[in-house]
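Hypothesis: this fold can be encoded by more than one sequence.
Test: take the structure tokens below, design a sequence, compare later.
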């Protein structure tokens, strides 16, 4: 198996070298993105980037809600590596609010080619047809 492409996750304490795993949740096959690190030569879950909110609406297979634990750090990580675009929509579940993100599946494929390909194929999508984040218009870039 090919060595995963590394990223750095900065939670404010100590930067961690991590890699991504892309898959689909078992119920409804919504996008799952996990952040992993290598411990003693084996992949170990560092943090779930996404959560499975089956009641919350999504507009595309590339959309997901971000885990509320460390959500500011998660959103900073997504922006830093241009993994997707943070959308204005949020959803409440319990006492928590979750931010919606439109992930760039082509960008995710750079970090987990096999997982992203399998997820996309399960939705009948080829990499060339992958939904990509839309470029921001000028007024959004200036904010």
């Amino acid at each position: 198996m090919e060595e995963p492409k590394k990223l750095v996750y900065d939670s404010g304490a100590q930067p961690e070298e991590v890699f991504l795993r892309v898959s689909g949740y078992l119920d409804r096959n919504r996008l799952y993105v996990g952040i992993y690190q290598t411990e003693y030569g084996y992949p170990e879950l560092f943090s779930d980037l996404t959560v499975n909110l089956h009641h919350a609406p999504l507009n595309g297979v590339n959309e997901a809600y971000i885990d509320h634990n460390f959500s500011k750090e998660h959103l900073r990580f997504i922006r830093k590596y241009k993994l997707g675009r943070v959308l204005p929509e949020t959803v409440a579940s319990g006492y928590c609010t979750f931010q919606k993100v439109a992930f760039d599946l082509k960008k995710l494929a750079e970090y987990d080619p096999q997982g992203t390909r399998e997820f996309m194929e399960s939705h009948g999508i080829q990499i060339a047809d992958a939904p990509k984040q839309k470029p921001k218009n000028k007024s959004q870039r200036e904010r």
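Confidence is low (pLDDT under 50) at residues 133-143. The first helix runs from residue 71 to 80.
Hypothesis status: open.
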